[in-house]
């Protein structure tokens, strides 16, 4: 299992947090998601054989938010 932290821009309420969490949790290979509204981040634990960081970012964008991996 791999872990990645994504910065997520555009979240401003708990509804936003739920939307991002749901978008990420519904992806194949994602084991755990924790979104922090105050910090504007999403921590994702995923199976790297089933999922990629680019696909995770794409799902956040599809939910209506900007995202990028923290290096």
UniProtKB/TrEMBL annotation:
Entry keywords, A to Z: Copper, Metal-binding
InterPro entries: Heavy-metal-associated_CS, HMA_Cu_ion-bd, HMA_dom, HMA_dom_sf
Domain (HMA) ranges: 2-68
Pfam families xrefs: HMA
Transmembrane segments: none
Domain of life: Bacteria
PANTHER family, sorted: P-TYPE CATION-TRANSPORTING ATPASE
NCBIfam families: copper ion binding protein
Protein name per Swiss-Prot or TrEMBL: Copper chaperone CopZ
Organism annotation: Marinilactibacillus psychrotolerans
